[in-house]
UniProtKB/TrEMBL annotation:
Gene3D superfamilies: Zinc/RING finger domain, C3HC4 (zinc finger). This is RING-type E3 ubiquitin transferase (cysteine targeting). Its main location: membrane. InterPro entries: PEX2/10, Pex_N, RING-HC_PEX2, Znf_C3HC4_RING-type, Znf_RING, Znf_RING/FYVE/PHD, Znf_RING_CS. Pfam families: Pex2_Pex12, zf-C3HC4. GO terms for cellular component: peroxisomal membrane. Its EC number is 2.3.2.36.
Length: 337
């Protein structure tokens, strides 16, 4: 009977602390997989939505201003013109009061599903972070500073520009103090425009803080709801695009058309059968009434009112008779020699 030898074990028994060493090696990996609250969730807010929200807010303010001006349309002309900066500031204050002050988005931000978040107090990691959009709204100090800088700043700057232009600070014959103040105003405007342009470049690169005020206040626009689509009907957008293209085509083609030739071509189709009657011939073909001061067009000698014929001839150098489509070269009072 053959003898079968068992194969010797390739490895010896593990050391006594092998389980402990392996546990220590895998423990950091297990903690990193189990504790996902330490992972920072990156968020990206559409820059187009932020620009659209700002534009919608401007349009909303313009609509409110138009309705308010209509209320005073029967009053003294130009009454609201001298108080236009105050009117703009009042409307901007109303929008701020009933939106940002009460922790609600502005009309433009609401349409674009955006809201302001205090970036200083926004949680980066933690159990409360699920989508990266969590975070409190603006604090009271941020809201007040936003109103002072945005509403009050625009009002003060508008009044300063109108006052300096009215006082003619930039004229050379003005006093040195006025010219120096005008130079300071121009330098401040140039500095602000340069800072705004630099902030725009930073916004296009990073997608944060559309304006300088938002960057100073650390007020960032984030999505109000992570699962909300833009409520814009494509049917309405298609109609708007078709109408815009059609109107642009008409604006291009209408100046190229000869209106006199078109009227002459359509005249046989639109001419009334009773147009040649004596009653119609006696009436003015423009106002369709009996002429109070009858004048005739030369050389066709058709009868018109003086004011109707005179205004048409002054408006158009080569006015054509409404009845026969012949060029009117002169007018003459009926019955005169």
């Amino acid at each position: 009977m053959p003898h079968v030898e068992s194969a010797p074990a390739s490895n010896g028994p593990p050391p006594q602390d092998a389980w402990h060493a392996e546990f220590q090696r895998l423990l950091p990996l297990w903690e990193s997989l189990g504790d996902s609250t330490k992972v920072i969730i990156p968020i990206s807010i559409s820059r187009v939505n932020q620009f659209d929200a700002a534009r919608l807010d401007v349009e909303m303010s313009a609509m409110l201003k138009e309705q308010l001006v209509k209320v005073f349309s029967l009053m003294k002309p130009g009454l609201l013109f001298q108080y236009e900066p105050e009117l703009d500031a009042f409307l901007e204050f109303l929008i701020w009061r009933f939106s940002i002050w009460v922790d609600k988005p502005t009309p433009g931000n609401a349409l674009m599903n955006l809201r302001y978040r205090d970036e200083r107090a926004a949680p980066i990691t933690g159990k409360e972070v699920r989508t990266g959009l969590e975070g409190p709204g603006l604090s009271v100090s941020q809201k007040i500073f936003y109103c002072i800088s945005f509403v009050g700043g625009q009002y003060v700057w508008s009044r300063l520009q109108s006052f300096s232009a009215f006082r003619r600070w930039g004229d050379s014959e003005q006093r040195p103090l006025a010219r120096r103040a005008w130079g300071l105003v121009q330098n401040a405007e140039g500095l602000y425009r340069a800072a705004s342009f630099f902030n725009l470049l930073l916004f296009l690169y990073g997608g944060r803080y559309k304006t300088i005020v938002e960057r100073i206040l650390k007020a960032r626009l984030v999505y109000g709801s992570p699962n909300m689509n833009r409520a814009v009907s494509f049917e309405y957008m298609n109609r708007q695009l078709v109408w815009n293209e059609f109107s642009e085509m008409l604006l291009v083609l209408l100046p190229l058309l000869n209106s006199s030739s078109v009227k002459k071509f359509l005249l046989p189709f639109s001419k009334d059968k009773s147009a040649g009657s004596s009653g119609d011939e006696a009436d003015c073909p423009i106002c369709r009434s009996s002429p109070s001061i009858p004048f005739i067009a030369l050389p066709c000698q058709h009868r018109y009112c003086y004011y109707c014929l005179r205004t048409r001839c002054l408006a158009t150098s080569s006015y054509r008779c409404t009845r026969c489509n012949e060029v009117v070269v002169a007018i003459q009072r009926q019955g005169s020699i």
